[in-house]
Design goal:
With 193 residues, the chain is mostly beta strands. Helix content is 7%, strand content 32%.
Amino acid sequence: MVKATTPQPYKQTLDAPRKFKKISNRKISPLPYPDPSDLRKEGTWKKTSETKKHPKLSKNKKKLLIRVSLKGNRTYIIDNGKVVYTMLSTAGMYKKGKSLTPTGNYHIHFNRGKEFFNPKLKEGARNWTSWSHKDVYLFHSVPTKKGGKINVKEAEKLGQTQGSHGCVRLSLPDSYWIMKNVPVGTKVVIKDW
């Protein structure tokens, strides 16, 4: 005899089922968490990703997590197991089926800065925060050209497609908020989805 069960209400957790979003007329991509209703349009890089203010974070960094979805083009701020903010992001391009952004578990490092320019790549950015050994990989703003002007063509990819050489690109205010507010030691989890 099969017992009937009462459906449980949906609770968004780190193990919540993936939701799907429409990327274009043909492609559908799973997101690890549903987009919030106040998420701005993909390609928005001058404003915060959500219309609400950035969250005030727990004092306990063990309860904090930054979760990056490479193919979903989202970065999630998770506090005490709950998504408290969603950011439009663009990470590493895929070459031979693998992202230039490494997947895995990392931590926010001490090193941060207002801007940088890499002459080899002919690209820079503002508001950078390191999450890797020797500051190879960063959270930072959409890219800048030599002289510090925003590369608008690349900036408009934010939240839509991959495009970086391995770092995670964010809007100007989102990258500034991470640089100023996320404590050293905060766990960073990067996955394809």
